């Protein structure tokens, strides 16, 4: 059973006489523990796909399955519960609260879900230690580099032990060195900690860390590439494939 799959997923915005199809009958899957990247030109539907899978938006047509369960019929409250406990989100902008330190920011999802504060801090600290931030627990966001802030955001996404991590351009606000580090960390989250990772990116170097790449164009799934080894030429292969699909 896939960790997540979609069936004819479609999203149309606007009124019928001025409708825009952002996603057009996309069927795809991501296996448990797999690291999959979604690529394509701007406006092709990459972020829309991620938002629909994560329950941040509702599809016009089609269905989303998480661990075999159909999310289509869930009400807003049930969808919110799924997001809190089963899905971790990472975005381009870190969205850390400036008045909280790294430990408090990482613990926030558990704190908001009513978990004992001491337990929440312990779990957050464990993830931050894994991400080499053990000496930064008391630092506020303005005392951290961009790469460190994104690692705190990833720890926050993982603190509730979700099975699925959704990352929307997580390196888009970072320099090349920090971007490579974040991409390698997401690959570890899949390979070492067994989480399923689905990432949207425009950067072939980042996508080259994935196990598989899905290519979207004009809201449709048009191509797919399997990266069987972490070869140094993968980024070139991905960039060439992007050019061929019109990215």
Distance between the amino and carboxyl termini: 31 Å
Whole-angstrom Rg: 18 Å
- Report the uncertain regions: none
Q: Please work out how many helical segments DSSP would assign.
A: 8
Tell me the series of helices and strands, N- to C-terminal: EEEHEEHEHHHEHEHEEH
Which homologous superfamily in CATH is the superfamily? Answer: P-loop containing nucleotide triphosphate hydrolases
| Cα shape | globular
Care to count the β-strands? 10
Mean pLDDT: 92
**Share of helical residues:** 25-40%
Major sheet: 6 strands, mixed
Per-chain topology:
Blueprint: E1 4-13, E2 20-30, E3 35-39, H1 46-53, E4 61-66, E5 69-70, H2 76-86, E6 87-91, H3 102-112, H4 117-130, H5 146-158, E7 164-168, H6 176-191, E8 196-200, H7 204-207, E9 212-217, E10 220-226, H8 234-245
Parallel strand pairs: 3-8, 3-9, 6-7, 7-8
Antiparallel strand pairs: 1-2, 1-4, 4-5, 9-10
Helix pairs in contact: 3-4, 3-5, 5-6
Condensed summary:
By secondary structure, the protein is of the alpha/beta class. It is built from 8 helices and 10 strands.
Structure in words:
- This protein has one domain: Rossmann fold.
- The model has no long low-confidence stretch (mean pLDDT 92).
- It is globular, with a radius of gyration of 18 Å.
- It is 36% helix and 25% strand.
- The protein is an alpha/beta fold and 247 residues long.
- The two termini are 31 Å apart.
Which terms would index this structure?
247 residues; alpha/beta; Rossmann fold; six-stranded mixed β-sheet; four-stranded antiparallel β-sheet; 10 strands
């Amino acid at each position: 059973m896939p960790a997540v799959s979609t069936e004819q997923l479609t999203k149309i915005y606007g009124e019928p006489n001025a409708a825009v199809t952002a996603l057009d009958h996309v069927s795809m899957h991501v296996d448990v523990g797999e690291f999959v990247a979604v690529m394509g030109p701007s406006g092709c539907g990459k972020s829309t796909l991620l938002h629909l899978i994560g329950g941040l938006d509702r599809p016009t047509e089609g269905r989303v399955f998480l661990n075999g369960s159909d999310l289509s019929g869930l009400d807003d409250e049930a969808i919110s519960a799924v997001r809190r406990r089963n899905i971790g989100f990472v975005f381009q902008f870190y969205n850390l609260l400036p008045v909280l330190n790294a430990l408090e920011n990482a613990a926030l999802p558990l704190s908001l879900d009513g978990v004992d504060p001491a337990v929440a801090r312990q779990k957050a600290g464990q993830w931050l230690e894994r991400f080499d931030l053990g000496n930064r627990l008391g630092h506020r966001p303005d005392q951290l580099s961009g790469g460190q802030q994104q690692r705190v955001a990833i720890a926050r996404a993982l603190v509730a032990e979700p099975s699925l991590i959704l990352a929307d351009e997580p390196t888009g606000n970072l320099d090349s060195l920090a971007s490579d580090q974040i991409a390698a960390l997401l690959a570890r989250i899949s390979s070492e900690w067994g989480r399923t990772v689905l990432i949207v990116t425009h950067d072939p170097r980042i996508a080259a860390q994935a196990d598989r790449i899905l290519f979207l164009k004009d809201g449709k799934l048009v191509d797919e590439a399997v990266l069987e080894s972490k070869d140094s030429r993968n980024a070139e292969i991905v960039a060439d494939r992007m050019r061929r699909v019109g990215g």
